[in-house]
Amino acid sequence: MASTKYDSFEKIWSGPKDKEYYGPDMTLGEVALIILRLYSDKVMQVYDPTGEELTGSQLLEQSRRLAHAFQRLKLQRGDVVGISAKNTTYLTEVVIAALLNGTPINPLHPDFDAETTAYMFEITKPKVIFCDLDNYQTLSAVKSSLKFKTEIILLTGTLPGVRNIQDLLADGCTGYDEKTLFACPHLCGDDTAFIITSSGVTGLPKGVTRSHRSLLNSAKIPQLFTSDTVLFCFSPLYWISCIFTLLASLVNGCRRIITNRPFSVAYFADLVERHQVSFVLTVPHHMALLAKSPERQELAAKMQCVQSFVCSGSKVPMGIWRQLYELLGANRFAVLYGLTETGGISKNVGGPLGSEGRLLRNVQVRVVDPHGQSLGPNQTGQILVRLNLRWGGYYHNPQETQVTVTPDGKWLLTGDHGYFDDEGCLHFQSRDTDVFKYNHFPIYPKQIEDVILHLPGVHEVAVFGIPDEVSTNLTACAVVRNEDELGAS
Fold first, then answer.
1. CB 83 within 8 A of CB 106
2. I need a surface site. Which of 71, 95, 151, 215 has the fewest CB within 10 A?
3. 382-395 burial, b for 16+ CB within 10 Å, e for fewer?
4. Cα 299 to Cα 272: distance, rounded to the nearest angstrom
5. With 60 as the cut, is the pLDDT of residue 285 above it?
6. pLDDT, averaged across the chain
7. Are the C-beta atoms of residues 416 and 428 closer than 8 Å to each other?
8. Shortest CA distance to 333 belongs to which of 318, 317, 350, 358?
9. At how many degrees (to 10) do helices 28-38 and 56-72 cross?
C-alpha cells in the first residue's frame, strides 16, 4: 500500500499526491466522447443475460442520438433526469446523454416502494424518469402522487401509450446532425453530474451532489485501470459503486459487464469466468456469501482471472476477512473506506486485518475531538476529510449542508469516529448516527420506531442492529408494553 504522510505540526494525514488529469472545465460527457471515439471498434459493454455487445462507436452514436432526443424533449441545463432501473443495455447511453446535456442524474433503487421513491423525487423533481417494465406500475403510482409534471420512459419492454427507449432513439434521429458535439458550452467541471441518494452524515435520506470534476478525478486511475481491464459490479445505478464502475469504463477505456440478474455465488463465479473479469467492486454481504461457500476450490479456480476484488459499503467482519484472504490471497482483496460525498478515502490491500488502510491519492484527513481540536496518532475522534474540490452539498438542503462542513468550508465532517495508528493506517470505530446496514441497505431505526409506537399497547420501543457476518447487521427490536396491557396479561 502507498504510504500515508503525517504532518505533526498541522496534525494532518495525507495520501500520495497525483495530478488532475483533466482541466477544471472538462465534463464527464466530453471525456466519454473522446474515449468512445478512441476505442470505437472495441467492445465496451456486454449485457450478460443476452450476450448483447456494444462497441465504442455504437455507444457513442446511440448516446448522441439520445442527447438530441433530450433536447427535443425541452430538457434544459440543470433539469434532473430520474432513473429507477436495473442494469440493462441502454442505461449507459441514457447516462451519457444526460451528462452531455448538463442534466444531473438522480438514480434510485428499482426495488424501492412508491413512498420512498416519491420522497426522493419530490426533492429532485426530475423532468423525465426512466424505469423498467417490471417496476412501471410503482413509478406510475409515484407519478400520480407527485406535485410536479414528469414523463415516464421505459428502458425495457413496451406498453401502449408509454414512450420507450426505442421511441426516444427514433426521435433522436429527427434533425440529428452527427457533427454536433453536444458538449454544453456553459457547463464546467464544478457543475453537478449526479444526485446520489444517501443517508449522509446526519441520518435521513438526502441527495448528495457530485460534480463532473470530482467524479472524473475519482474514476480516472491509470495506475489501476487499462484498456485491457474488464470491470464488473452487481449493484444498480442507485449505488455509488455502480456509478464508479460505469464512469471508470468510460474514462479509462475498459470493458464493462452488466446484468440485471440478482446475486448468487454460482452466477457470480460463472459470469466472472465466462467474461474473464479482472476487476470486481462489491459489498461485504456478497463477499461473505463467497467466503462461506462450501465450493471453495471450484470458486477459487473460476475467479483466478480477477486481479482485484474491492469491497466497500460497511465494515467487513474479521472472520470473513480472514476467509477471503485464504480464498483469494491477501494481495487480491481490498477493503475500501469512503463516502458518497467525497468518494474513496482509504484502502487496505494486504494490510493489517480490521484496518481501513492508508489514504488514497490526493486525500487529506484530520481527526478532531468534540471541541474541534486536532488529535494525533492513536487518539480517537471524528474523522474530517478535506474538500479539495468544490462540493455542491446536499441538493436543495442548505441547512444539512451547512452542518456537515466546517465554518471555513474546507473540511467535511464525516460523522465517523476513528484514529490513525503509528503506521498511518486508519481505523474506523463508530458513527454519530444510529443508521446501520442490513444486506448493504441502510436501516433507519427512528422511522421503524415511529411506526411501532403507533401500535396499540406500545409504551417504548428501540430498534437496533445485531452484528452478523453475512448481513452485516440483523434488525432487532425491543418493546416496552403499556402498564395497562401488562396488567391485562
1. yes
2. 151
3. bbbbbbebebbbbb
4. 10
5. yes
6. 92
7. yes
8. 350
9. 140
Residue 412 β-bridge partners: 385, 405
Which three-class secondary structure string do you get for 393-458?
A: CECCCHHHHHHHECCCCCEEEEEEEEEECCCCCEEEEEECCCCEEECCEEECHHHHHHHHCCCCCE
Give the predicted TM-score (pTM) of the model.
Answer: 0.90
Q: Tell me, what's the pLDDT at 183? A: 61
CA distances to 230, 281, 354, 441 from 314, rounded to whole Å, are: 25, 13, 12, 10
Distance of CA 357 to the CA centre of its chain: 20
Classified as helix, coil or strand, 332 is: coil
Q: Tell which residue, 398, 429, 413, 285, has the closest CA to residue 341.
A: 413
* Domain assignment of residue 313, yes or no: no
Q: What is the mean pLDDT of residues 47-58?
A: 98
Which pLDDT does position 450 carry in this prediction?
74
Tell me, rounded to whole angstroms, the distance of Cα 487 from its chain centroid: 50
CATH code where residue 196 lies: 3.40.50.12780
Half-sphere exposure of 279 (CA within 13 A, CB side): 19
Domain range enclosing 174: 20-232
pLDDT over 90 (residue 367): yes
Number of domains within the chain: 2
The verdict on residue 388 lying in a domain is no
With beta carbons less than 8 A apart as the criterion, state whether 324 and 308 touch: no
pLDDT category at 172 given cuts 50, 70, 90 is confident
In DSSP terms, 438 is beta-bridged to 441
How many other C-beta atoms can be found within 10 angstroms of the C-beta atom of residue 462?
A: 14
User: Which residue's entry shows cell 459470469?
Assistant: 271
Q: Are strands 151-154 and 128-131 parallel, antiparallel or unpaired?
A: parallel
Query: 407 near 177, Cβ under 8 Å?
Result: no
Q: Is residue 372 part of a domain?
A: no
The last residue of a domain, from among 232, 253, 284: 232
CATH number (domain holding residue 483):
3.30.300.30
Question: At which of 175, 209, 232 does a domain end?
Answer: 232
Structural Rg of the chain based on CA atoms: 23
Widest CA span in the chain: 80
What backbone torsions phi and psi does residue 270 show, to the nearest 5 degrees? Answer: -65, -45
